[in-house]
Each structure stands twice: as C-alpha cells, then as structure tokens.
Amino acid sequence: MCVDMIMKVVRELDVSAYLFNVLLSVFGLNSELEVKAFPRSGKSPRGDYRQLLLKARCPFVSSCVSEEVTMATVPQGNVGKPRFGPSDRLIAIFRACSRDPTDAVKTRLRRMLHLFLQHHRDDEGRGRSKVLAVKCCCEAETWYYRILENLLIQERQRLGISDVSDMLEYDLLQSCLVACCLEISVTSNHLSCDFPLLQQLLNVASYQFWKVIEPVLRLGVGLPGLVVKHLAQVEVKVLESLAWTRDSPLWEEIRANEGHMPACQQVMLPTQLEGSIRTDFPSTLNRPRRSSSFHLFARKVYILMGVRLRGLCSALDISDELRLKTWTCFEYSLVHCTSLMVDRHLDQLLMCAIYIIAKISQMEIPFKRIMKCYESQPHTSRSVCKNVLISEKDDAVLTPRTPSAHYPGPSQVKRGNLIYFYNQTYTTKMQHFAKQFAPTFGGDTPPLSPYPQLKKASPRRQRLPCSPTIFVSPYNAETITPFTSRLCYYFNSSPSECLCEINNMIRTGRSPRRSCYALSMDREDGEDEDGDDGPSAKRLRLNSQSAWQRRLRNVMNDRITRQNQDQVQSFPVNRSMLH
C-alpha cells in the first residue's frame, strides 16, 4: 500500500532523484536504498520508480490513507505540468553568475525540506499528514524555482546587471524564500503546519520572513486567492505582535536607530498624511526615510494602527480632536518608550492610549467598555486583553539597548489582564507625557503627531492564472486610452462581440487585428462598418475631450445601460474576477 501511495506522488511527474529519496525517507523505507540519478531518456521513469519501490522494505502501513487523498502535485492556480528543478532560463541565469550558485541553492532547499519532512515523519500515526507533507515539498520546490526566477529577472532589469551572485548567496533571503514557498504549499493543501509553526520549525524569524511577503505577492506568479489572503494575514500578525518578541531581529535594528522606532513623519510622505496639522518637529524629521526594510516596517505599522484607532474611535464616539491626541500618545510610546512592546501586542498600547487620554481629557470611558468594543472588531483575539506580559521586577528598566541576556527569562515574568498592565507598567512610563494634554496643564501642549491618511480602496490589475496575457482591472475613464494594441471589454458598456473575441483568443491563442471596443455616444455616419477581422463597434473619441466631457459621456452611457439591462446576456468570462 505504501508503494501505491508514493506512486500517486511520482506518477506522470519527472521528479528529481532527491525527491524520490525523500519519499523513501518519509515513509521509513530502506535507508540503504539511495537513488543517485535517473536516466533522462525519452521514456518515462515510472518503471524505474516501481522497481526501486518493490525492492524497498515498507514498515509503514496505515489504513487511514485512502484514495480520497488526491496527489495532484500541480501548484494550485496554475495550469500545465509542473517542472521540478530550475528551468532552462534559470539555469542560464545561474551560469551568468561569477560564482555558480547551483549546488548551494539545491543544498539549502534540500536541508529545509528535510527539516519539514522530519517533523512529519516523527509524528506517528498520522499517515495522511505524511502524504500531504510529501506533496507540500513537491509543490514548494516548484514554487521556489518559479518565484526565484521571477525575482532574479526583476532584479537584473532593475539594476541593469547579469551577475546576481550576491542575491543568490544571501542565505537569509533564500531561506526566507524557501520558508515562504513551503507556507504557500502548506496553505494550499490545508496541512496543519502553517505560520508561525512552520517558521519556528525552519528557524526563520518572523520579522525576516515578513520581508519576503510583499516581493512575492507583487510578482504576480498566479498564487491562489486563498494563499494571497493568508499571506496578508501573516503580515498583519508579524506587524502587530510576532515581530516584537524579545528574540526578534527587529530589536537589533531599533538599537541601531539610537534605541527608537522612527516617528510617523519620518517614514510617511506628506501625501500619505492627513491635512494641516500643527507640527514643531525639526526639519530632519520632515524628510521621509523609506529606503530600508526597517522604515518600511514602521510605515506599515503606523498605517495599520491608524486604521484600527479610527475604527475604535468611531465605535466609542470619540471626536477627531481626541483621536489625534490619542494617536500622538500612542506614537510617543512607540518612539520613546519602545521597551513597552517587548513580547507584547500593538493593540495593547493602543487601548491604553485611548483610556489615558480620555481620562485626562475628562471624558470618562470605562476600560472595560474599550476592551469590549475592541473584541467586537474583526481582527481581534480575547487573549490580547486577557494575557498581557507583566514583569515581576518593578525595578528592572528594560530598553531596546539592553542586551537580550538581561531581559527577564520565563521564570522571571508573569502575566495578567490589560487593566493590570496599565496600572502597573504603562502609567509609570506614559503618565508624565499624557498629563500635558490635560485642560488644566499650565505649560505648552505637545504638538500633535501627523495621522496616516485613510487609504482609498483601489482594486489593482490582476492577471488570470490561466493565461499570462489576460488581465482584469477596474475601469477608469480618466486614464483609459482609446486605441491600444489590446483587446478590451468594459462591463455594462461594451457589446457582446468584444467578449466573444476575447474568449476566442483564449481558446485559440491568437489575437485578432481589431484591438479595442467600447460604446460611445459620438457616432458619425460611415463609422459603423463590418469587416473581416471582427464585428462592428462604435469607437471611443477621447483625444479632444476634457475630463468633464468624458464624465458626462459616462453618465449618459450608464443611463442607456440601465434601460437595456433586461437584454444583457450571460458571458463565459466570470464577472466576479473584478472583485
């Protein structure tokens, strides 16, 4: 039976000899049987696999693995037979390097896949989990070489170079990339070994793992929607808590930045901030620093927490003036009292800032009401309010410059609820600053920190997984050009023939000569003609029109469309792709 299960993995696939040996290892087969290589002739290697499997001893037999486990190792969201190992194009990139990185890349990949499989091999009695683990490794290798190839091509074009040895020899980056590819395959196959368990197993820090998420998502390599959503959630987890653990590399970068987090104004462009706010910062703080991943991390933290504070203030009926004071207090705690975040959650500091500013401003909001309102938000967990780190040593002053060995160990700390943390720890460091916002304060009030502007939702252009040349994007009458070399279909505007041409192009792989169709209110005699290359259509005439004229035309088009909605036909293209 073990032979049949392994054959499900390798059937119809030209897998590498290494992966075949992995299959033997994960099922506990004869360790002396090792395959060095398979002949690369025209015939299928399946017979070789079968013979070797029959020679191997099989101590692992589990009845829990049944035919319902489909071992289709094609990465989800992609069409076609997967290729194990680097493509010809990637091999050419390797050969163009001053130092051939092929062996180092393969060795690193094998080591990390072995760690992953060893974890599931030691998990006795879970046969289905072992089968899925093998499938995840096969998919992860395919994803790794595909993503690596696209990243290298992008980097070569950006820098104008052909030698990318430094990027390939950067072990931390490549390890994080392998971990990310395993995360993709684990999520796709619903294996119970996802983030952060996986990165702990592979010994990859959450903060370092976060650095590869955005580059991978921006590549547009056809990741399934489930994976894209999961990686976005992973990024949020890292920003709010996982990057702030006591052993995180983030603290090294904070120490290098004079022991402080960058201020919001240091990492945001003026266009990303709310309008005229009184600021008395030095001119050096008014220049955004966005070059490093550390400043990118800080910017994403401020954007995330700006959205969350806005939502809480709306639910608690807090005015904009009080919201800006709360934000200033929260930013001060991150920049000047950064040690408050050691092994804690950003939302904990945010709720404390809401309470202390409201209390000083003589607006009584019970702390329990703040926590209840917080727990009603979609992103929250009860443990954020119930399980807060509280150090037993009141005299221990921890700073980001303190060596990690001086932080309290597991036996020197205790935990409590958020109110206890506020009374015992938070007020001792923040009360002096917060009191400056009291109505009775006699001195100068601190300047209000700039607040991140609410980002407008703008759906980005998406590439269909089935084709590298088909894109779906939101229609924008301000930027669309009337004549392009592409086929275009505007929902609720274009005639059905346009969609038929796109579908024909997808089926046949050939693009007709006619390029772009759309409805227009500007029709002239002789303009509507039938030709051999496609159906007749009314052309857009935008060159001599101003923006308000185009808006007027769109309004008129919408009215005509609403009158003809009963005649709208159903089309093969899925309209949900727009969302």
Automatic annotation (TrEMBL):
Q: Which residues form the Retinoblastoma-associated protein A-box domain?
A: 63-254
Q: Which UniProt keywords apply?
A: Chromatin regulator, Phosphoprotein
Which residue range or ranges hold the Cyclin-like domain? 307-393
Q: Superkingdom, according to UniProt?
A: Eukaryota
Instruction: Please name the Pfam families in this protein's record.
Output: RB_A (PF01858), RB_B (PF01857)
**Xref: InterPro entries:** Cyclin-like_dom, Cyclin-like_sf, RB_A, RB_B, RB_C, RB_fam
User: Any keyword Phosphoprotein?
Assistant: yes
Residue intervals of the Retinoblastoma-associated protein C-terminal domain: 434-567
Extract the GO molecular function terms from the UniProt entry: RNA polymerase II transcription regulatory region sequence-specific DNA binding
- Please provide one cellular component term from the Gene Ontology annotations of this protein: transcription regulator complex
Q: Which GO terms describe its biological process?
A: cell differentiation; chromatin organization; negative regulation of G1/S transition of mitotic cell cycle; regulation of transcription by RNA polymerase II
SMART domains in UniProt: CYCLIN, RB_A, Rb_C
Please state what the protein is called. Retinoblastoma-like protein 2 isoform X1
Gene name, please? LOC114433990
